[in-house]
Every structure is written in C-alpha cells, then in structure tokens.
Design a protein that fits this description.
It contains 14 helices and 12 strands. By secondary structure, the chain is an alpha+beta fold. It has a single domain, classed as Cytochrome P450 (Cytochrome p450). The strands form 4 sheets. A 5-stranded mixed beta sheet has the order 1-2-8-5-3. A 3-stranded antiparallel beta sheet has the order 4-12-9. The chain is globular and about 60 Å long. The chain starts with 13 loop residues before the first helix and ends with a strand.
C-alpha cells in the first residue's frame, strides 16, 4: 500500500458537492495525482481516475475494469446483496452486449424523430405556462416535469403517475453514507418492489400484444430480456428511470446557473441561435450530471503509472475529466461556441455510453432554443440547494424569476 500515490483528498465527501467546492480538489489531483488511492472513506478504499485520457482508457477496457454487479456494480458504494441492482450497465460482455441491443433501437433515429416533436410541444407549453414576475422553483416546475414527461411517453405511463416515477428515481439513484443502514435498505427495497409491481403490469400488457418499437415491448418480446428474474426486471426499470430523469433534469437546471454566471453566452446564442445544439453539449460537459462511475479491476494491472490490484475499486470521476484543461481550454468557463464540447464524457465512453444520450441532447437543446426564441432570462432569486451525492451532480431547488428582455 505504501508505494501507491496516496491522496489526502476524499473526493467522495458530500460537502464538496453540497457546498459547490469540488473544482479545486480535482484540479489538484489532475495536476499531481491523475491516478491516486484513498484508503479511508465512507465507502472503503478506492482509486480515483481524474483525467480525460485515463478515464477513457478505463472505459475502453471492460475486460480489465469490470462493471458487473457480481464484482461490485457501478457506484463507489458497495451494495448490500438485496440492493445489488443487476441492470444491463452493471454487466460485462457478452450479457451486456445482448441486453443493450434490445434497448438501443428504442432510441434509434426513427424513434428520435417521433419523440422530437413531442419534446418541442411539451417544452413550449411548459414555458408558456410559467408565472411571470413571480418567484418559482425551476427544478420543480421545469426540469422535473420535462424529464418525467418524456419518461411517461417512453413507458406509455399515465401522466397522473409522474410523481411516482420521480420518487422511485430518487430512491434508485441515491448514493451516500446514509444508505448503508438496514433501515434504509428495507425502505429502498419497499420502494423498488412497488415500482416493479407497477411496471410488471405494464410489461404483461405489452406481452399480450404483437411486438412493437415501444421500449417495454422490445424488452418483453426479446430473448435477452424477455425472461428476466424479478431482480433483473427491477434493476433495468430503475436504470431506465434514473438514466432518463436525473441526468437530463440536472443539465436543464444547470442552464440557469451557467447563463447567470456567463451572461455573454446568452447574448451569443441570441445572436446565433444555431449554436443551441452545441450549447446543449457544453452544458452537459460543464455540469457533468453523473459525477462518477465505478469499475472493479478483475486482474492486476497498471494505470497512469500506478499498480492496481485485482479486486480494487476504480472510480472514474467524469466531473473532473470534463474539466481537464489538457482537452478543454479554460475548462471552468461555460462557452456555447466551444469547438470540442462534444468530446465530453458525461454520458460515458465505449461500450457503456448512455443509450439515451441523443434523446437527452435533444431535450436540453430544445429547452435552450425555446428560451432563446422567447428572449427571456431566468434570474436566480437565491442560491440553489445542491444534491448531497457523490454519484449525481445536481440540484434539489432553484428559486428563479423570468425576466422578459
């Protein structure tokens, strides 16, 4: 252990994120310890990988760095057996490959074209209904409804049940020291079983119909996912809900902060609205809504000059890789015209890159376009409250007012 690069910084510390002071610690690690070991944390010992190039290297070698639930799953926290979710991103090839092939066509070009119109219509209607001259919570009234609304469309779920999706998503994505008690785990499984019961009903209805391009229909009519165990069904539903909700909604919320800190970028978009698609990439990079993903070494290996032992926990800090100055000039700046914004790895890289990335980009880009078209500014009225999580980088509340320019 003594020959490892030992970091004095525990970048899993929740206070770094709730107090928004994570930038300097990661910059320090990128400069002096791009791969470092932290022996003491609420989650045990772990390696931190913090540069763009080295995170990419880990992502491209699943045969060395495993995602499998059987080896520890995909977050820094080691799950208890009953809450060890066995979804398709917590698998290695060949099972991961087979299950991903079932899901991917639901987010293919033909489906995206259909969803694009619905995204536009819902975004316009929501923005037009917002209060003018009154303070309201952007997270609650914009980011959450837009993302939950898309999930209701994908699952053909009644809009009246949207609050259940948010609740299940919040439970499924929670990573922190408070999740390690028996009481929490029992409550977690009660929430997940409620979710499974609801979705089992939806899936059985799809099973009785001919196969279609519908996401749940693809799952129930496939060889790879049609006969999943209850824990596998639960795990994959939880993944789809979290992936379609938390990441997109936190990028949408970050827009408010970015435009407030960099008002010239809003003016740049107004002058050149065609930059909106690139601005969507940039806000996803700048926010990095997934703070980290975890892998487990399945063989002894070396990374960044450090010897990593079989069984070691390896944490890829996307939030740091997306601020790597070796790739992104003036990386802390939100720049809607950044020429390489698409090089961000907020959606992962390689075989585990998010299958719904294109849909998320469209949702965020459409929100930007509609804000620009209306010539409105979203003015913060108080500091936002931030999510206490080392896994998702986001907001729980953001009081704002709409200003018409």
């Amino acid at each position: 252990m003594t020959d490892r690069a030992l970091t004095p910084i525990d970048v899993s510390d929740l206070a770094l994120y709730t107090e928004d002071r994570w930038r300097a610690p990661f910059a320090q690690l990128r400069a002096s310890m791009p791969v470092s070991w932290r022996n003491d944390s609420p989650y045990g010992g772990y390696w931190s990988v913090v540069t763009h190039g080295l995170v990419t290297e880990v992502e491209l070698h699943p045969e060395i760095f495993s995602s499998s639930w059987a080896n520890g799953n995909i977050t820094i926290a080691d799950p208890a057996p009953e809450s060890n979710l066995q979804n398709f991103i917590a698998q290695d090839p060949p099972l991961h490959t087979a299950q991903r092939k079932v899901i991917t066509p639901a987010f293919g070009p033909s489906q995206i074209v259909k969803l694009d119109t619905q995204v536009r219509d819902r975004t316009r209607a929501l923005l037009d209904a917002l209060p003018k001259g009154e303070t309201f919570d952007w997270v609650e009234q914009v980011s959450i409804p837009l993302t939950i609304g898309m999930l209701c469309i994908l699952f053909d779920m009644p809009w009246e049940q949207r609050h259940d999706i948010k609740r299940w998503s919040d439970w499924a994505s929670n990573v922190g020291p408070d999740t390690r008690t028996d009481e929490y785990r029992a409550a977690f499984m009660a929430q997940m079983m409620e979710m499974l019961e609801r979705f089992d009903g939806f899936m059985e209805a799809r099973r009785a119909l001919p196969p279609s391009d519908d996401l749940l229909s693809r799952m129930v009519h496939s060889d790879a996912m049609g006969n999943m165990t209850p824990i596998e069904r639960l795990s994959n539903i939880a993944l789809l809900i979290v992936g379609g909700n938390d990441t997109t909604r936190n990028s949408m919320s970050a827009l408010v902060e970015a435009f407030d800190q960099f008002p010239d970028e809003l003016e740049k978009l107004r002058a050149t609205p065609s930059l909106s698609a690139n601005a969507a990439q940039e806000i996803i990079r700048w926010q990095s809504p997934v703070t980290h993903m975890r892998r487990t070494a399945v063989v002894d290996t070396e990374l960044g000059g450090q010897k990593i032992a079989k069984g070691d926990k390896v944490v890829m800090w996307y939030i740091s890789a997306n601020r790597d100055e070796a790739v992104f000039t003036d990386a802390d700046r939100f720049d809607v015209s950044r020429d390489n914004a698409r090089r961000h790895i907020a959606f992962g890289h390689g075989i585990h890159r998010c299958v719904g990335a294109r849909l998320a980009e469209i949702q965020v880009g459409t929100l930007i376009e509609e804000i620009i078209e209306r010539r409105i500014r979203i003015a913060p009225q108080a500091a936002p409250t931030r999510l206490a999580s080392p896994f998702l980088h986001g907001f729980t509340a953001m009081p704002v007012q709409i200003i018409q320019d």
